[in-house]
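Predict structure. Chain length: 244.
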Amino acid sequence: MTSQTSQERKREVWPINRDPRGNDRTRETRVNERIRAREVRLIDENGEMIGVMPTPRALEIARERDLDLVEVQPNAVPPVCKLMDYGRYKYEQAKKESEARKHQKTITLKEIRLRPRTDEHDIGVKTRKIQEFLADGDKVRVSVQFRGPDLRHPEIGRRLLENIAETLKGTAVIERPPVMEGRVMSMIVSRAPGWEPPKKQAPAPSGKRQVATAGAVAGSQASTSPSAPAAGSQEVGEATDRQQ
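Prediction complete.
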């Protein structure tokens, strides 16, 4: 029985460049002389299969074409290698990752805190602030903090959160309904699908600018008006001379 088990172990195929710590571990990409396999399955720079060959021969082909031999599937038997400009490939990958990070939006959880006795004006201000957070793509945790006698009336805080949720209807969706946790009752809201925040209008010109413009126009008219009488007096003088 023991001899049979040892024979089965001898027959087991173990790739030369397989990571002994497990196939799921990330590893550095092997390039050119760092490839340790005896033979590889080679793919050219256009994605066409060339075939299985010894690794030294694949390296010769890569040098002839002024390219790199890159191990793209190290766990295959034999490993799969591809001809490419590895420096350019890494540059393009880094550029793609950078572009993806630029367009990636990080969603943060903002928090708005209230009290059971918060007045209507402050509730309106807080509600508009929630809409601003939702317009930026963030989630909002709306919480009501209880102190002292307020703890005997949690229904007041629940009613307050339900009224806010009703005001935000069409703007937000309730991800987590009101829940009491210790002295705090809270709910979590996020932006409703398809809701677009209203566009901000351009500010109207200020009153000072309008007054300054009107003053400039009046000044220009006043500066030109004295010249008209001067011309008229000159014409009257010429007519008097002719009569004499």
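Summary: DSSP finds seven helices and eight strands in the chain.
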